[in-house]
Amino acid sequence: MRPQTLQADINMNPVKVTEQDWTFIGAPTRQLTHCYHDYPARMIPQVAGKILDTFGREAKQLFDPYCGSGTSLVEGVIRGINVKGTDLNPLARLMAKAKTSINTIESVDKAIVDIDHFIRHGKAPVVDHIEGISRLHFWFKEAVVEKLSLLRTFIEKIEEEELRWFFQVAFSETVRESSNTRNEEFKLYRYEEERLEKFDPDVYGIMMAKLARNREGLKSFLSIVKNFNYKPVAHIYDFNTVHEVPADKVAPESIDIVVTSPPYGDSHTTVAYGQYSRLSAAWLGLPEAHKIDQKLMGSKKQKELPDLPSEELIEALGKIAETHYKRALEVGAFYTDLYASINNVAKLVRSGGHACYVVGNRKVKGVVLPTDIVVKNFFEQFDFIYVDTFHRGIPNKRMPSKNSPTNAPGTVDQTMTREYIVVMRKS
To answer: Rounded distance, CA 92 to CA 355, Å?
Structure first.
């Protein structure tokens, strides 16, 4: 059995939405396992869900080449679709695995009782060094380190892998919220001394609250998937689509629909995923999370502007180069990698299948980069036909509505307030 409509079977969106409304003002974005963990620049589930309900009603295989914390994958699973995703960030992969795992409430409840008992009666050695965190007590108070050490000891003893993922994502958020960092931001900034003096996080309380919240999300998730005649399968990988897509993981022409939201630009000037993940990933022992930003699209320097198949992009790069050639090279490097990724992703989609990219048109040096048109142009190079571009306002952004692109006093400009859902179909 597969659900026929999102409204009837999931009831995720109580707000009445017209066919052309992609903004979803007031819609709940933290239901089901979407509640598990915050993550930078998340695609909201309603967008991924509407894409699937519009263009993927018959889909059996979904792929997300920049899956992040797994929003599109969860939306695929609750529609009975087998999903595959890849991401370079090991913390994001952990989230995606946990969100798409079909744990039982009984196993979760037993482990929650066990960790509560361990908190009250257990003992564990207090760590004095964590690989990936050079100054442990700069980022964490001594009492916090002691309590996190106890929690980590319990989690490491959980034998069942999927159950351990469930506890690890709750622990990850606990690490973030009990650290000395300004959690309202994605980059690593330590609280000022005055605030730190009063900062006394309830580490155990945070952890138990996360577990309780996530349990309810899992319960709702399971209430949907239990109705299927089969369990949708989720696979999360770590390969980089800029370089390759291993055929033994995702076969050519095997994908019915691609639903994804690639980075808006290089991580150096957009979202620093590595900084966001660093502390949690280090406590969890995830490999090289602190080096993620060096591996993402646009990280490789170029010596000349790229010659890519998009007149609008070439024009925009030329305008940036007139005032700041080095910055134009950095932007060009990002689009070079995006083109290489789309080339590899295009080979995976079957004839008649769709590629749906949610993108933003950022400004660099006052020049709007037409990423929606660029994605259209790139896919057209690989036998895809343009279907449509849907616009959505971004009602809740963790960024100011204006910024100072040149850092000159009094000089401000608008930041992104819209996203574009570009839909292509393979001929």
So the answer is: 22
